[in-house]
Amino acid sequence: MGALFGTLSALGVGLGDLYGRRVALKSSYITVAASLQFVAIFSSLAAVVFVSSQFTLRDIALGGLSGFGMGAGLVTYFVGLGRAGAAVVGPTVAALMSVIPFVYAASTGATVTSGAAIGAVVALIGLLMVTGGRAKADAVRAGAIWAVAAGCSYGFALTVMITVDSDAGAWPGVSQRIVAFALMVPIAMRANVPLTAPSGLRTKAVLAGIFGGLSTIFYLVGLGFDTTSTVVTAAMFPAVTVVVGRMAFGDAVRPIQILGLGAVLVGVIAVVVA
Questions:
Q1: Around Cβ 57, how many Cβ atoms within 10 Å?
Q2: pLDDT at position 245
Q3: Residue 251 has what pLDDT?
Q4: What's the pLDDT score for residue 169?
Q5: CA distances from 160 to 58, 79, 100, 150, 230 (A)
Q6: pTM
Q7: 201: buried, middle or exposed (CB in 10 Å: 19+, 13-18, 0-12)?
Q8: Radius of gyration for the alpha carbons in the chain, expressed in angstroms and rounded
Q9: What's residue 59's pLDDT?
Q10: In this structure, are residues 125 and 168 in contact, taking their beta carbons and an 8 Å threshold?
Q11: What's residue 19's pLDDT?
C-alpha cells in the first residue's frame, strides 16, 4: 500500500506540472507556484474530511516546518533553473530529494531489505538518466550551489513529513501548504508578478493546486503503511514529469531517458516486491 500511495503522490506532482506548465506558458513560474500552493491549502483542508485526521500542535508545527523546506526548495529551484537550466539542476535536485528521506528512514529503523536497497539504487540511477542532459562547465558551476540548496530543501521537507504521527492524516499537509504559500508572497511581490493566474487560465491553476495538494496527502497516507516504499516511489515524480512533457507538450526524449525510465520502473518494482 505504501508503494501505491507513493506512486499516486508522484502522479499528483506530474499532473500538477501538466496544468501548471500550461499556466506558466502565459504567465510566470512564480505565479504558478504561488497559485498552486494557495489552492493546495484548500484541497488539503478538503482531504481532512475524507482522511481520518487527528489535530495536534506538534504535527501542525512539523507540517509548517516541512512547508518552509518546500517553499525554500521551490525558490532555489527556480533560481537554479535561471542560472544553469534543467540539465544541471534537475538531476541534482532529484537525487538529493530521493536520497535524503530514504537515508533518514533507513537510519531510524524503517524496514529496508537488501532487495529494496538495491531497487532504490537502481531507481535513483534511472532517475539521474531521465533528468540528465548536456550542459557547459560554466553552467554547472553557476547552478550547482542553487541545485544543491533546492535538493536539500526538498529532501528536508519530505523527511520532516516522515516524523509526523501516523494519526495526523491530512493536517500536516494543510500547514505545509500555508507556510509554503506565505513564503511565495514576498517573492512574487519582489519579482513584480501576480499571485493569481491570468483570466482564462485560472481553472488550470486550480487543477494544478488540487493535484499538488493531493500529492502531499497521498505521501502522508503512504507513510502510514510503509515508509521505505512510499519514499522511494514518491520520489520518482521527475520520471512522471518527463512522460507528461513528452505526451502533452511534445518535449524531445533522448534514448538515455528512455533507458532511465526503464531503470526507474525496474527499481520501483524491486522495492515493492522486496
A1: 7
A2: 73
A3: 67
A4: 87
A5: 12, 24, 11, 15, 14
A6: 0.81
A7: buried
A8: 17
A9: 94
A10: no
A11: 87
User: Which of 202, 197, 234, 184 is CA-nearest to residue 14?
Assistant: 234
User: For position 211, what pLDDT does the model report?
Assistant: 92
Series of mean pLDDT values for 10-residue runs along the chain (274 residues): 88 84 81 88 90 91 93 79 63 76 80 76 77 56 77 90 89 94 90 87 90 91 86 77 75 75 77 67
Give 187-223 as a DSSP string: HHHHHT--SSPPTTSHHHHHHHHHHHHHHHHHHHHHH
- How far is CA 265 from each of CA 11, 213, 268, rounded to the nearest angstrom? 14, 25, 5
Tell me how far apart the alpha carbons of residues 93 and 80 are, in angstroms, rounded to a whole number.
10
Instruction: For residue 18, give the C-alpha cell.
Output: 501538466
CA distance 20 to 201: 10
CB-hemisphere CA count at 13 Å for 228? Answer: 25
Reading phi first (left if > 0) and then psi (alpha if -120 to 50, else beta), residue 161 is in: alpha
Q: For the chain, give every domain's residue range.
A: 2-273
What pLDDT, on the 0 to 100 scale, is given for residue 173? Answer: 92
What DSSP string describes 87-148?
Answer: HHHHHHHHHHHHHHHHHHHHHTT----HHHHHHHHHHHHHHHHHH-----HHHHHHHHHHHH
Give every CB contact of residue 237 below 8 A, 6+ residues apart in sequence.
Answer: 9, 10, 11, 13, 14, 215
